[in-house]
Task: inverse folding
């Protein structure tokens, strides 16, 4: 499991009816109807994130978390990367980014369609 977490890249696929996020630990699908907004942030919001069910190895946060201000959230975030995509849904917030800025910008543009 630790090998998969360390070496499986985070991927995002935006379809006409759902968004799929895959990683080495926790994959998820979001129905497009549940998305309230998507925004490209300069960094992960400053909050006290507590791991609920996931991985936090100091380099990345993957899985389910709870922020003191943010509330329930899912993270697929490399901590050394500056930009983060925030997707607000009806039930929780999702934060994602990539080590490849061009890839992350492509994800964001796909989300805006």
Result:
């Amino acid at each position: 499991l630790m090998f998969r977490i360390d070496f499986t890249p985070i991927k995002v696929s935006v379809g006409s009816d759902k968004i799929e996020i895959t990683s080495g630990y926790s994959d998820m699908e979001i129905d497009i109807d549940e998305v309230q907004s998507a925004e490209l942030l300069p960094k992960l919001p400053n909050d006290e994130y507590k791991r609920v069910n996931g991985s936090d190895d100091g380099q990345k946060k993957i899985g389910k978390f709870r922020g003191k201000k943010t509330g329930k959230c899912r993270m697929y975030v490399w901590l050394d990367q500056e930009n983060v995509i925030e997707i607000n849904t009806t039930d929780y917030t999702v934060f994602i980014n990539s080590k490849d800025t061009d890839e992350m910008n492509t994800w964001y543009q796909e989300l805006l369609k």
